[in-house]
Specification:
By secondary structure, this protein is α/β, with parallel strands linked by helices. The protein has helices spanning 2-25, 32-41, 57-60, 65-72, 86-96, 124-127, 135-145, 149-156, 158-162, 183-186, 213-229, 248-257, 269-272, 288-305, and strands at residues 51-54, 76-78, 104-108, 232-237, 261-264.
Length: 323
Amino acid sequence: MVKKIAASLLCLALIAAGIAALGHVTRPTGDDVAIAGINAFHQLPENSVDVIVYGSSHAWRNVNVNEMYDQYGIGAYNYACNWQHMNTTWLFFHDSLRTQSPKVALIETFHVNSNLFDTDMDGEIYYTTAIPDSEYKRQYLDMCFEGDISRYLSYYIPLVAYHENKTNLTAESFQPTSNDVDFLDTKGFYPRDGEFVADVQDWTQAEKWVIGERSLAMLDDIVNTCHERGIEVVFFTAPWSTEEYQYFDAMQQYADEHGCAYINMFEHMEDAGISEETDFCDPHHLNIYGATKMADYLGAYLKEHYDLTDWRTVPGNQWENHA
């Protein structure tokens, strides 16, 4: 009897290991870079970062936080990620406070009124598997899955969601990760090369839309949490081309009413020296040169308005030896 039980347990263990291995092989390899960014954040020493950047790829690819250190001594980390809707930024924010006590939360607003949830597990929902479990994560998954058990299974057993990828495997599928960015060195920033000639909208002609109740509730929760913890909140909107953004006035009004700052980088592109001809890598994102210029502008604002440590005066700090 003992041998039968042991054999059964061994069989179950092998099945579980096989399912896990197949789930890894069929995973969406494009999300490896996001998962690496999340894992790097959780390797930081506790309470070691003064400024944390949150938001979508408009923050992740557009704010070279090491420039803030080089120019102003600001100890920042870019904890943004691609595709983020407002609810995912909300999750990242609360996750970050489990281990960090920033002085400033720098929050990008591209998806401020977007709470649409993926239906196929690709993108932002899948990469949140790298975020440790918490009450906020459970709330997030409840929002995303709305009680659909099959989607919970897809989240915790990736093979369920991605088994059809078996016909699209590449060499990267069989590697531990397809990521080649050292996020501990870039402090979360995801740099991009290349040049794209952008056609940035005239922000003064944009329609004036309002922010929906669902997003306002999340913004209120973030801002109230920051106020309770003595964290300053700075919202910003990064420039891009081809699409309009209709929330400039709404964000300014919200910031004014809630004791926050709002920086519209469409308005300050010239001040920051960001060029439509040379500083974009695609219609939506800045290249490394543009991202450095934007970080320089934002860093100057933070240094002027908030009491931040100059980490350049602290030997052995985690920013001083970045590439």
